[in-house]
Amino acid sequence: MHRNKSYKKRFQTFSKSLSDPALINYARQNGKNTFSRKRKLALKDMLLCGLSKKGLTTTLERRNYLKEKGDLSMQLSVQGYLQQRKRLNPEIFPYRNLTYLMDFYHSDEPKLWKGYLLIAIDGSKVEAPNSKEHRETFGNSGNQHSKTGQVRA
């Protein structure tokens, strides 16, 4: 039971940190005005939607996220979502990962098994924006009909 509470606390801390003004500044790809207006889908929601992807189409992923959030009334086009995502600094994900790991490793929570920290990689895919830079960095994944930018854990 103690373990579940610590994970919930870590997720709540992580979720709260997504609204931090310093993170918003870091998330800006171009210019100081990006993510300054109040949008239908806030930066926090855009990041959580991207992190909760399960390999479905962008339309279904966006709908499932809004359904879980309890806000199916929000009218947000795929084009609008993708335009906002294009403005996102791709370095935000490694940055958030690093801060999350720092929180994990500097807490009292990690338990060792026979002196080792157990880690698992599940092979999950995350869709990355299809840009030349991403294709060069992460490569392509797909089939004979299409190639999309994807990152595999």
Short description, anyone?
The protein contains seven helices and three strands.
Question: How would you describe the overall organization of this protein?
Answer:
The protein is built from seven helices and three strands, in the order H-H-H-H-H-H-E-H-E-E. By secondary structure, it is mainly α. Strand 2 (140-142) and strand 3 form a beta hairpin. The protein has helices at 2-17, 21-27, 43-51, 58-69, 78-86, 92-105, 132-138; strands spanning 125-127, 140-142, 147-152. It has two domains: 2-111, no CATH class; 120-153, no CATH class. Helix content is 48%, strand content 8%. The model has no long low-confidence stretch (mean pLDDT 77). It has a three-stranded antiparallel β-sheet, covered by helices on one side.
Distance between the termini: 28 Å
- The rounded Rg comes to 17 Å
Number of strands: 3
Instruction: Supply the number of structural domains.
Output: 2
Number of helices: 7
Oligomer type:
single chain
Secondary structure layout:
Elements: H1 2-17, H2 21-27, H3 43-51, H4 58-69, H5 78-86, H6 92-105, E1 125-127, H7 132-138, E2 140-142, E3 147-152
Antiparallel strand pairs: 1-3, 2-3
Please tag this protein with its features.
8% strand, 153 residues, three-stranded antiparallel β-sheet, 3 strands, mainly alpha, 2 domains, 7 helices
